[in-house]
Amino acid sequence: MAPAAAIVIPVDKNWEFKQLDKDGAEFLPVSQFPTNVHLDLIHHKLIPDPFIGKNELDVQWVGEAQWVYKTTFKGQPVPQGAKAILAFDGLDTFATVVLNGTTILETDNMFTPERVEVTKLLKDENELVISFDSAYLRGWKLVEKYPEHKWGVWNGDNSRLAVRKAQYHWGWDWGPALLTCGPWRPINLEIYETRLADLSFDSTIPEDLTSADIKATAEVEGSGGKVKFDLSLDGKEVASQTADANGAGNVTVSFHLDNPSLWFPFRYGKQPLYTLKATLLSGDDEISNITKKIGLRRAELVQQPLLDQPGTSFFFRVNNIPIYCGGSDWIPADNFIPRITAQKYHDWISLVRDGNQFMVRIWGGGIYEEQAFYDACDELGVLVWQDFMFGCGNYPAWPELRKSIDREARENIKLLRHHPSIVIWAGNNEDYQYQESAGLTYDFENKDAESWLQTDFPARYIYEKILSDACAELIPGTFYHPGSPWGAGRDTHDATVGDIHQWNVWHGTQEKWQDFDKLSGRFVSEFGMQAFPDVKTIDAYLPLGKDDPDRYPQSSTVDFHNKADGHERRIALYLVENMRYAPDPLEQFVYATQLMQAECLASAYRLWKRQWKGPGREYNAGALVWQINDCWPVTSWSIVDFYLRPKHAFYTVKREMAPVSAGITRKVHKHPRDKYTRVYIDTETKIEVWGSNLTLEDLTVDVVVKAWDVITGEQTFEKKIAEGLVLPENRSTEVAALDVPVKEKGKGEENKVVAAAYIVDKDGKQIARYVNWPEPLKYVHLQKPKELKAVLNADATAVEISAEVPVKGVALECEDDAVRFEDNLVDIVPGEVVSIAVKGATKETKISTRYLGMI
């Protein structure tokens, strides 16, 4: 008799919860499922919203209490020879699971899915009870159990290192401490005699890209049958094979495709996704199936000697195309993960793509993200750098923990390995930097893995043995990087190898952002600058909104919504170094911090992308800004706030990562006339002009430089500095260096000259523009324009901006969140009209402006 078809029944109804360690507590219905305890308590108004005001402080007790969830569900007949399985996709974190009075599972890892056979326990009516202990208190008990370990962290406290749970739940320098628990991912009842447990594939694409060899593997659990593999594209069959499943185990078939449709990062090609389906058959009966969307691409991380600089390159090449990976770092989009919808993930990744960001790095203190996140990246052509979930500390490695981590790694690799967007896995975030800072033992030349466990840095065994082995076995075609930052076992600050985190702007030595060209690396996977969020976001977290007495920049509530140590001093430092600003009104101060962040990050992208010089000269191959997003409403390094409202830096980064961009920097050269003189020094200020062409075609262009007097608005210079210049594909090219255009040298007029570079194509169309100002901006005598115009066009699809004097950082603002600007924070010079596309506007939409120097 043929096995019955496998069935999967969600266990997602009738859930209730209560506090376990509180006498008299009664069960209440959950707010949703999957869920966590904070969401349910908020739903029943048993705790205030932790994101409002200082409510975070009032809910800390939740993370130190015990909680219980229960439900009832109907059983299903289990055919002879079949079995029933309860599958838990994610339990957060220390859970005891009881079915019909029998303990069936105890967990201690939030990230690892669990499967338990319950055939003999299943009844017509079933009660499932899950008790959750405090991860915080259990963590401290484990710390006490292993006093010989050299505990230490940046952010949170030592207890988090002992617990396999999202580390940001302990609080970070951008997020609150909210220690959740609960069934945070789906629970299903499965009944089957045999089933497909997994479907994976390996693909090989030769350098000429003309074919693809695919090896598809289905894992069969239970008795045999046949497995049919189907490969289709856009609903049309491409290939099909059927193979015998002789008992449990793996069934593998091979496909050869000529001229496959390849998956590319956006802008460089399309994102075709094949459908790979495996079906377990018994005769003609379908027993079980798995379907996955896959992309075929040739992806490499290239580390090779450079032509005329020390060290090696570090760049990603996809389908033979070197990619300059401008992008950003990603943290979980909410402290309460179960309420993040698939649509919200898609909205976030759409923003990443709309911002011309080719890569997003999933940071190691959060979670292995939901499938919807990676699905969006696959669909939209955004590359993913995937960290394993370790960050900013010295992790222990006792035997049971090593086993748990090995399972965690393998299960999550299996869940994610089909996504074409993932091009690298990294072992941790900044744990090697912590090792250096704390002086922990690390000898790169020692390759005896067992001996690493005897040192005060046993986590090396995790990163260079457990995770490395799991990746080598399960995803041999995807590059594994032991950590971020990391470079061949050298000091993690070595800018000539691997990736670096460049925090000497904001943290560290607090360098000027104008010097980012001196702070480069082969690949900068973190750097950043803080800015306040949108004023509407601040009003949303103030208990009384616009009427709140704490509605000013230095209030205790606003300070509470910035978790970075020393943020007051650092924001003030970079503001006072660069611009005149006022703390009142709040709107203008928010604008000043966003202008500061926008100028800083644009400077980094512009100066580092200048070092993307073509084959053999990939001196900098990527810049990932910390960070794209927030997990709550907060002042942080994000360039888009919690409510998906872009800060102004989002737009300046978008412009710098456009297909073609122009760059100018000013360099002051001093030439003493005598060896020891302090008086007789000749000074000249040069502007250096370059163009960046990230397209795959050589462009023939003209380059024009113009200049204006910042005070009068008079145009003082215009010259075509290059005519018929070829900007070669996919690199930056130096154009010219010339004196700052002034009427009379030696009079200090350089500090009142605004210069702009324009790249014009062979048809006379402007394809890039950059306006360069004297710095610091605080020294510039900015004028208030009498005729600053920002006018919606006739069909309300664009705003046209102009002024009679140079205006720095014109920002368009609208109260209606449905109105979205395609660009913002633009510099205006006389004689030009800058047009910014807008969506969601009508002829009645009111748009206002803000600019530097208006107050």
UniProtKB/TrEMBL annotation:
<dbReference type="GO" id="GO:0000272">
    <property type="term" value="P:polysaccharide catabolic process"/>
</dbReference>
<dbReference type="InterPro" id="IPR054593">
    <property type="entry name" value="Beta-mannosidase-like_N2"/>
</dbReference>
<dbReference type="InterPro" id="IPR036156">
    <property type="entry name" value="Beta-gal/glucu_dom_sf"/>
</dbReference>
<feature type="domain" description="Beta-mannosidase-like galactose-binding">
    <location>
        <begin position="15"/>
        <end position="185"/>
    </location>
</feature>
<keyword id="KW-0378">Hydrolase</keyword>
<dbReference type="GO" id="GO:0006516">
    <property type="term" value="P:glycoprotein catabolic process"/>
</dbReference>
<keyword id="KW-0964">Secreted</keyword>
<dbReference type="Pfam" id="PF22666">
    <property type="entry name" value="Glyco_hydro_2_N2"/>
</dbReference>
<dbReference type="InterPro" id="IPR041625">
    <property type="entry name" value="Beta-mannosidase_Ig"/>
</dbReference>
<dbReference type="Pfam" id="PF00703">
    <property type="entry name" value="Glyco_hydro_2"/>
</dbReference>
<comment type="similarity">
    <text>Belongs to the glycosyl hydrolase 2 family. Beta-mannosidase B subfamily.</text>
</comment>
<dbReference type="Pfam" id="PF17753">
    <property type="entry name" value="Ig_mannosidase"/>
</dbReference>
<dbReference type="InterPro" id="IPR041447">
    <property type="entry name" value="Mannosidase_ig"/>
</dbReference>
<dbReference type="InterPro" id="IPR013783">
    <property type="entry name" value="Ig-like_fold"/>
</dbReference>
<dbReference type="InterPro" id="IPR017853">
    <property type="entry name" value="GH"/>
</dbReference>
<feature type="domain" description="Beta-mannosidase Ig-fold">
    <location>
        <begin position="788"/>
        <end position="842"/>
    </location>
</feature>
<dbReference type="Pfam" id="PF17786">
    <property type="entry name" value="Mannosidase_ig"/>
</dbReference>
<keyword id="KW-0624">Polysaccharide degradation</keyword>
<dbReference type="InterPro" id="IPR006102">
    <property type="entry name" value="Ig-like_GH2"/>
</dbReference>
<dbReference type="GO" id="GO:0005576">
    <property type="term" value="C:extracellular region"/>
</dbReference>
<keyword id="KW-0326">Glycosidase</keyword>
<comment type="pathway">
    <text>Glycan metabolism; N-glycan degradation.</text>
</comment>
<protein>
    <recommendedName>
        <fullName>Beta-mannosidase B</fullName>
        <ecNumber>3.2.1.25</ecNumber>
    </recommendedName>
</protein>
<dbReference type="InterPro" id="IPR050887">
    <property type="entry name" value="Beta-mannosidase_GH2"/>
</dbReference>
<dbReference type="InterPro" id="IPR008979">
    <property type="entry name" value="Galactose-bd-like_sf"/>
</dbReference>
<keyword id="KW-0325">Glycoprotein</keyword>
<comment type="subunit">
    <text>Homodimer.</text>
</comment>
<keyword id="KW-0119">Carbohydrate metabolism</keyword>
<feature type="domain" description="Mannosidase Ig/CBM-like">
    <location>
        <begin position="685"/>
        <end position="779"/>
    </location>
</feature>
<feature type="domain" description="Glycoside hydrolase family 2 immunoglobulin-like beta-sandwich">
    <location>
        <begin position="194"/>
        <end position="297"/>
    </location>
</feature>
<dbReference type="GO" id="GO:0004567">
    <property type="term" value="F:beta-mannosidase activity"/>
</dbReference>
